[in-house]
Amino acid sequence: MDRSCSKASGRNEIMATMKLNNSQETYGGLTCRVIDALPQGQQPDAVMVLCHGFGAPGDDLAAFGPHLLSSSEDIAERYRFVFPEAPIDLTPMGMPGGRAWWPINMAQLAEINQTEDYSKLTTVEPPGMSAASDQLAATVKEIQAANGIDDSATVLGGFSQGAMVTSNIVLRDGFVPKLMVLFSGTLLNSEVWKKQAANHAGCPVLQSHGRQDMVLPFAPATLLRDMLTENGFDVDFHAFIGPHTIPMEVLTELMRQL
């Protein structure tokens, strides 16, 4: 049988027998979508916390839960997925349903892309990042406590701004997750992050970025990769031909690493 057909058949079998649990919980003051396929009352062996990007709804990445659960019987039997909603409602700013971890000046970001003066992006701490990081760190700790796990059974990650806030809590607060997942993130607050990374135990990192990314340019993403690698993080970097997105091949690699 063709391998792709075999994989599809196996996935269909898993989906046919899988009972999906999909609920809304509050951890650390953040509304979270919680998805798993575990029997009622059973605690997971591991939890993945995945944070959405700027302007997206809180459950923007929640479809990854069923996809990953149905892709592997091992994942379905072991993992719970938690998708926190960022604290800032962007509806008053003309983005109904959109959320943000902190405000972003999109015009300034476009100018940075045009001028390629990336220092204006990589060397500064965005206003509001610290407060958002405080809340996400509290959320992760509450999730861990509720599920009876520690860092070694926690996967932390996000897309775009969600990857930035993830990077910040790992470096700043000393989280040592089972895996850090950075989809289309970037280097920020570089001098501080470098010092924090040097004092960190390091952890595995799955990082991806599109070479044609017109939102967060590719070059600063490689600076983040290099900074983490130089400080003992085991970075698996996936560059792809494409824009500001998460391609299927990267999601497949995430499934493999989980």
Automatic annotation (TrEMBL):
Source domain of life: Bacteria
InterPro entries on file: AB_hydrolase_fold, LYPA1-2/EST-like, PLipase/COase/thioEstase
Keywords assigned by UniProt, alphabetized: Hydrolase
Gene3D superfamilies: alpha/beta hydrolase
GO molecular function terms listed in the Swiss-Prot or TrEMBL record: hydrolase activity
Domain Phospholipase/carboxylesterase/thioesterase: 41-253
Pfam families found in the cross-reference section: Abhydrolase_2
Keyword Hydrolase among UniProt keywords: yes
Protein family membership: Belongs to the AB hydrolase superfamily. AB hydrolase 2 family.
Name assigned to this protein: Putative hydrolase
